[in-house]
Structures are given as structure tokens and as C-alpha cells.
């Protein structure tokens, strides 16, 4: 990489900066702690499954719609019901998810590093992500770290479709060449996202907070693995700069 050229670091939002598990606190108000954990996990699973199924069918629904519909699916699976007002409150809470504890020091380090340009790169709608980044109590104070917010809404496809990563490249002034794609990093706690970015030539930093190691076997060889594995985000700026 030429001296002085900025390294683009794209941070996934849900499951990387924001903990989708934190919605369980809101669910617990309705169902109790134990049931809330199960509902939260299933909700997230269906949310992702819906995006992949839509990609496969070449269809698109906004992430906000997917999030609400996957909640309805989850409640039905658990034999639970919520009135419209409660569902609306949960959707509002989804815009204020808690960050992981390692996020604040990581973003401070990124901000102080002049060689990195950070962006948010998310499946969420523009409104959802703007609200989460700029208005949430946890993430809002660090919104200035990000030079821009890039979502899939304009592309009308979801990760890990190649077009969403090429869309990111265009937004940050890169093209689809392997050379340019290789100058961008994705930081994500979602293995499917890492495999997707690696397939188009990007560098991928997988955040393995659970410490379980890389187990995804979809794509064999180095292209199917993260460039680096970190157990938290605290040293992500240093690791990327030193790679």
C-alpha cells in the first residue's frame, strides 16, 4: 500500500459493535429472564435467515420489516403473544442496543490513528443505522469516529452477497479490482460476513468474543478464513496497522 494511503476499516454493526443479545433485557419485561434469552437468540437467527432467503430468491424487504417479521415468527414458535404497542416498543429498543464493553476503547484508538478511515457497514436500513450510531447512549458519543455510514439499502441485497461489498468499495472510493478490495478491512463478529468479504478479496478481522475458534467450513482454504482473529476489539487498530 502506498505510503500515506488510508486503510479503510468497515465495522459491521449488529453483532460486532452492538450486542443483539441486549434486546433480551426488554424481552424480559414481558417473558422473564430465561424465556427472554431464548426469544432473543431465535429472533436473531430468523432475522439472519430471512436475509439469506431473500438473497436466494432475488427479493428484498427492508431490514426493519425483516426484524419485525422475524420477531412475529419467533413469538409464534414459542407460543407467545405481544400486542402492537409492545412490539413497537421492542422495535424502538432495537435502535438503542447496547455496545459490547470493548467497543469504546477500540473506537477511541481508531480515532487517534491517522492511518485509518473507519466506516459503519450494515444490513440495516439507513434510518435504523443512523439512529443507532448517532442517537444511542452507548454509540452516539463515538459517532464522529466514522467518516460515513454505508448500508445495503441502496443495493437491495444483503450480506454476504458480493454486490454489497462492491457497494462499500464504491462508497469509499475503491473499485472492484482485487487490488482495491484487498486494501479494505471488514471487522465483524459474524462468520458469514467474514467469508463474504474474503470471497471478494477484502481483508477480514473476525471478532471471536466467545473464544470458540474458527469453525466455518463453507469455503475451504485461506479465502474461507479470516485474515486475523481477535478475541475483542481493544487492539483492532494496532493489529490492522501492523498487518
Care to describe what's here?
With 243 residues, the chain is an alpha/beta fold. It contains 10 helices and 6 strands; from the N terminus they run βαααααβαβααβαββα. The chain has helices spanning 24-31, 33-57, 63-78, 84-94, 103-111, 126-135, 162-171, 178-181, 191-199, 236-242; strands at residues 7-11, 116-122, 146-151, 184-188, 203-207, 228-230. Helix 6 (126-135) links the parallel strand 2 (116-122) and strand 3.
What descriptive keywords fit this protein?
single chain, 243 residues, alpha/beta, six-stranded parallel β-sheet, 6 strands
Rg, alpha carbons: 18 Å
Helix content class: 40-55%
What is the rounded distance between the termini?
Answer: 11 Å
DSSP strand count: 6
Strand order of the largest sheet: 3-2-1-4-5-6
In short:
This protein is α/β, with parallel strands linked by helices and 243 residues long. It has 10 helices and 6 strands; from the N terminus they run βαααααβαβααβαββα.
Topology:
Elements: E1 7-11, H1 24-31, H2 33-57, H3 63-78, H4 84-94, H5 103-111, E2 116-122, H6 126-135, E3 146-151, H7 162-171, H8 178-181, E4 184-188, H9 191-199, E5 203-207, E6 228-230, H10 236-242
Parallel strand pairs: 1-2, 1-4, 2-3, 4-5, 5-6
Helix pairs in contact: 1-2, 2-3
Amino acid at each position: 500500500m502506498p505510503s500515506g494511503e488510508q486503510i479503510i476499516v468497515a465495522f459491521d454493526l449488529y453483532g460486532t459493535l452492538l450486542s443483539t443479545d441486549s434486546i433480551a433485557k426488554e424481552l424480559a419485561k414481558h417473558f422473564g429472564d430465561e424465556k427472554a434469552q431464548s426469544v432473543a437468540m431465535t429472533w436473531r437467527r430468523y432475522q439472519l435467515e430471512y436475509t439469506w432467503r431473500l438473497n436466494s430468491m432475488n427479493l428484498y424487504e427492508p431490514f426493519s420489516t425483516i426484524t419485525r417479521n422475524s420477531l412475529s415468527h419467533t413469538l409464534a414458535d414459542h407460543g407467545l403473544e405481544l400486542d402492537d404497542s409492545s412490539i413497537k416498543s421492542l422495535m424502538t429498543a432495537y435502535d438503542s442496543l447496547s455496545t459490547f464493553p470493548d467497543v469504546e476503547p477500540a473506537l477511541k484508538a481508531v480515532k487517534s490513528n491517522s492511518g485509518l478511515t473507519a466506516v459503519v457497514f450494515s444490513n440495516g436500513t439507513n434510518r435504523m443505522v443512523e439512529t443507532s450510531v448517532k442517537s444511542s447512549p452507548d454509540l452516539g458519543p463515538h459517532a464522529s469516529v466514522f467518516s460515513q455510514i454505508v448500508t445495503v439499502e441502496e443495493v437491495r441485497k444483503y450480506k454476504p452477497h458480493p454486490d454489497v461489498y462492491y457497494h462499500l468499495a464504491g462508497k469509499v472510493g475503491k473499485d472492484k479490482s482485487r487490488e482495491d478490495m484487498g486494501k479494505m478491512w471488514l471487522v465483524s463478529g459474524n462468520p458469514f460476513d467474514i467469508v463474504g468479504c474474503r470471497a471478494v478479496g477484502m481483508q477480514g478481522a473476525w471478532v471471536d468474543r466467545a473464544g470458540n475458534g474458527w469453525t466455518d467450513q463453507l469455503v475451504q482454504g485461506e479465502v474461507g478464513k479470516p485474515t486475523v482473529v481477535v478475541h475483542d476489539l481493544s487492539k483492532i487498530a494496532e493489529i490492522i496497522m501492523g498487518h
